[in-house]
């Protein structure tokens, strides 16, 4: 897509994917988007774990009882974590990188969905972050923010209706109570 605004309007969370694999060049571009993301003081505190193995995707999808189903259906998932000792706003740093990956995926015509991990719990009460860390052999002191699922789209979603944007959330000059 050659127009960023059009890409932003068209991007929707995609939770169903075909079985077609994502080509390695696209995966590289998506990871490059993450590594290009701005970070506080250029600290680059993030780490990314790319998961393609179907069994592993299934087990990752069990990191929380609701909302993680797309992981099992994805061609590939990217776990986004960050080191809080390297950056005070590590959540923001990781989030921007995750969003950049979603935008790059959309630009490649691929579907993606953000799966929240931080602050969530598996059905046995294990924090979702620990669940993911243990499965992937990640360090305990590297909190997981989210998992970005990726795949070729197997559902069509309408672009956002820009006439319904919440302009009342925007306050010009000073706060205006609505
Ligand atoms: C911080 C954050 C957490 C989210 N967590 C989940 C999630 O755990 N599971 C899921 O299916 N979608 C999740 N989403 C996707 C949202 O549900 C989705 O972005 C929202 O409904 C708007 O739809 P759209 O992305 O199609 O515009 C999350 C999105 C964000 C930004």
Q: What report would you give on this structure?
A:
Helices cover 33% and strands 16% of the residues. The chain has 178 residues and is an alpha+beta fold. The protein has a single domain, classed as 3-Layer(aba) Sandwich (NADH Oxidase), CATH 3.40.109.10. The protein starts with a helix and ends in a 26-residue tail after the last strand. Flavin mononucleotide binds at residues 12-13, 15, 67, 70, 113-116.
Topology:
Layout: H1 4-10, H2 24-35, E1 46-51, H3 54-60, H4 69-73, E2 76-82, H5 90-107, E3 110-116, H6 128-136, E4 144-152
* Assigned CATH architecture: 3-Layer(aba) Sandwich
CATH superfamily: NADH Oxidase
Bound ligands? flavin mononucleotide
Calculate the terminal CA-CA distance, rounded to whole Å: 36 Å
The CATH C-level name is: Alpha Beta
Number of beta strands: 4
Largest sheet: 4 strands, antiparallel
Number of helices: 6
How much of the sequence lies in strands comes to 15-25%
Overall body shape: globular
Number of domain modules: 1
The secondary-structure element order is HHEHHEHEHE
> What level of helicity do the residues show?
25-40%
CATH topology: NADH Oxidase
Show unreliable segments.
none
Q: Name the average pLDDT.
A: 97
Lateral arrangement of strands in the main beta sheet: 1-2-4-3
Which structural category fits the helices and strands?
alpha+beta
Rg, Cα atoms, Å: 17 Å
Short description:
The chain has helices spanning 4-10, 24-35, 54-60, 69-73, 90-107, 128-136; strands spanning 46-51, 76-82, 110-116, 144-152.
């Amino acid at each position: 897509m050659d127009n960023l605004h059009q890409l932003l309007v068209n991007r929707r969370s995609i939770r169903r994917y075909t079985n077609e694999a994502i080509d390695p060049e696209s995966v590289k571009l998506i990871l490059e988007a993450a590594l290009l993301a701005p970070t506080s003081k250029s600290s680059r505190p993030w780490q990314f774990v790319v998961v393609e193995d179907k069994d592993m995707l299934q087990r990752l999808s069990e990191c929380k009882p609701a909302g993680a189903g797309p992981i099992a259906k994805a061609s590939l998932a990217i776990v986004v974590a960050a080191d809080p000792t390297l950056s005070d706003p590590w959540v923001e740093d990781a989030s921007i990188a995750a969003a950049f990956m979603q935008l790059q995926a959309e630009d490649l015509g691929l579907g993606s969905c953000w799966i929240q991990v931080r602050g969530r719990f598996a059905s046995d009460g294990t924090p979702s972050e620990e669940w993911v860390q243990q499965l992937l052999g990640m360090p305990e002191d590297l909190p997981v923010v989210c998992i970005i699922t990726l795949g070729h789209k197997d559902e069509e979603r309408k672009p956002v209706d820009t006439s319904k944007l919440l302009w009342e959330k925007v306050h010009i000059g000073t706060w205006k109570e609505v």
